[in-house]
Design a protein that fits this description.
CATH class of the largest domain: Alpha Beta
CATH superfamily of the largest domain: Bira Bifunctional Protein, Domain 2
Distance between the termini: 58 Å
CATH architecture of the largest domain: 2-Layer Sandwich
CATH topology of the largest domain: BirA Bifunctional Protein, domain 2
EC number: 6.1.1.20
Number of helices: 20
Bound molecules: phenylalanine
Keywords: Aminoacyl-tRNA synthetase, ATP-binding, Cytoplasm, Ligase, Magnesium, Metal-binding, Nucleotide-binding, Protein biosynthesis
Family: Belongs to the class-II aminoacyl-tRNA synthetase family. Phe-tRNA synthetase alpha subunit type 2 subfamily.
Number of domains: 3
Enzyme class: ligase
Structural class: alpha+beta
Strand order of the largest sheet: 9-12-13-17-16-15-14
Pfam families: tRNA-synt_2d
Strand content: 15-25%
Largest sheet: 7 strands, mixed
């Protein structure tokens, strides 16, 4: 009989008495796993071989496991520090040993519980005793972690199980296949099998020469294993930004553009933010050293803004009794909000004077010197927007949010009064997280005050907002930690699989 080359290679490599794994065959016949699997299935169909499928658990290190490969297991570090301090002779103060081992946070508990479990010693009355006979070099868990890190197998089931329990190792399920000859396969092999050259792709040359007429084509095997391709894709935050832009353009908004680094004048002074406001200290913002200041500001506007700060606007307004200095207004920083763009556009500086009605938006980065946590990054995307019209009310503002968020299927919105120097009234906006069910803040909004609008030369009402794109994305996709999508701790599986739809 004749068989395609790969099938013959597999047929010759397997035996009738033993199962040979596809992994082993892959190495033996020097073909890709998908090719070997395909050949094995073809042989099974022809009755020459059998294929057996089992589910295997592939161990791999978790992030914590990887860390311990580098730093050593916490209990081993504790033991070594204890020995150093003579705990094999006399009990030593636990605090001192922990410090010497450089353990802190959750590592302390991890070290203590495993220390005793593994017989490295005892902890009693706040003192550590080290077992002089314990051998950290023989630590089976450490050895198993090192083996896995080196890509070697770990055969000891009990050790593997304990590492899984400690969350240092993960088991990924995988279908493993093995192949064995049938009697018929043996018979055919003995009778002699020859190679049948099969063609696996059609070339222009074969078409030109007519060779294709006599060629034998290999069959596709759609059941064969294949590697999962993870091609590049648009990051989910970018996807969300694009969707948001589409929705806002659909709602009649035009897009604003402007500098990430801007003068404090545009970021704060134009928003009636007093110059001694806490958000304007170096604690909160990223100031530029070089260049430290903007070259020019529009003189008239500077005068009007300064007057509003000093005297207020209109009979009911007092202004601030705080210093105002144009040199301070000129200082450059990474914008802490994209409301700087709104100030630029409303002032007429960007696209000339604007007559109502107008609608503008941006979906751009803002930068804040926050403490990183599950809901804060040092930079984030703000969905800025404003509507200029005669006689706007809070209902218009709420209605716009209801409309906008409903496009993303978010209907449970809450409003909470708040304070901004530049809006009155002001509202924080909350939405319900689909996984935790908690209300999370998703934005801030309000109606710009006369103290802001008057110097900018705007007569009509302007309602405005800054919404966090990342928070919107949390509500859409249900992730709980902003660091899952941004920075060094990103959840690649999540990023690969998630799509933003509306
Ligand atoms: N600038 C505000 C958002 C906002 C914009 C416009 C009006 C009111 C609020 C913030 O960053 O939180």
């Amino acid at each position: 009989m004749k068989l395609p080359r790969q099938q013959l290679a597999v047929l010759e490599a397997v035996s009738a008495d033993e199962w040979t794994t596809v992994d082993a065959l892959t190495a033996q016949v020097d073909e890709k796993p998908a090719t070997v699997t395909g050949a094995a299935f073809a042989l099974e169909e022809e009755g020459l071989a059998e294929v057996r499928e089992t589910t295997e658990q592939d161990p791999s290190l978790t992030e914590e496991g990887e860390t311990y490969v580098e730093t050593g297991l916490p209990e081993v570090r504790l033991y070594e520090a204890a020995l150093d301090r003579g705990a094999d002779e006399d009990p030593v103060e636990m605090g001192a040993v922990i410090e010497a081992a450089d353990l802190d946070g959750p590592l302390v508990d991890i070290a203590l519980s495993n220390f005793a479990r593994k017989g490295y010693g005892e902890i009693e009355g706040g003192k550590v005793t080290a077992n002089p006979d314990a051998d950290p070099d023989g630590d089976e868990e450490a050895a198993a972690l090192a083996a896995l890190a080196a890509g070697k197998p770990v055969d000891d089931e009990a050790v593997l199980e304990s590492l899984v329990r400690r969350d240092l190792v993960e088991l990924d399920e995988r279908t493993a296949r093995s192949v064995r000859l049938t009697d018929e396969g043996v018979t055919e092999l003995m009778a002699g099998v020859e190679v049948r050259e099969a063609v696996d792709r059609l070339t222009p040359q074969m078409l030109a020469t007519g060779e294709w007429r006599d060629a034998e084509f290999a069959e596709y095997n759609v059941a064969a294993d294949a590697a999962t391709p993870n091609p590049g894709k648009v990051h989910v935050l970018r996807q969300a930004a694009e969707r948001v832009k589409e929705v806002l353009v659909g709602m009649g908004f035009e897009e604003m553009e402007g500098p990430h680094v801007d003068a404090d004048f545009w970021i704060n002074d134009c928003l009636f933010m007093p110059q001694d406001h806490p958000a304007r200290t170096h604690w909160d913002r990223f100031a530029l050293e070089t260049p430290a200041k903007i070259d020019e500001l529009p003189n008239d506007l500077v005068e009007r803004v300064e007057r509003a700060h000093r005297e207020g606007v209109g009979p009911d307004s007092n202004g601030y009794n705080s210093p105002w200095d144009v040199e301070f207004a000129k200082e450059l920083a990474l914008r802490g909000h994209t409301t700087s763009l709104s100030a630029r556009y409303l002032s007429g500086e960007q696209v000339g004077d604007l007559e109502p009605p107008q609608r503008y938006f941006s979906v751009e980065k803002a930068y804040r010197n926050d403490t990183l946590d599950a809901t804060h990054l040092l930079e984030f995307f703000q969905i800025e927007g404003w509507v200029m019209a005669e006689d706007l009310t809070v209902r218009d503002l709420m209605g716009t949010f209801t409309e906008f968020y409903s496009r993303f299927d978010i209907t449970d919105l809450r409003f909470k009064p708040t304070y901004n120097p530049y809006t009155e009234p002001s509202f924080e906006l909350f939405g319900r997280h689909p996984e935790t069910n908690e209300l999370i803040e998703i934005g801030n909004s309000g109606i710009f005050r006369p103290e802001m609008l008057d110097p900018l030369g705007v007569d009509a009402d302007v309602m405005a907002w800054g919404l966090a794109l990342e928070r919107l994305l949390m509500l859409i996709t249900g992730f709980e930690d902003i660091r899952d999508v941004h920075g060094t701790l990103t959840d690649l599986e999540f990023l690969r699989s998630v799509e933003v739809e509306y």
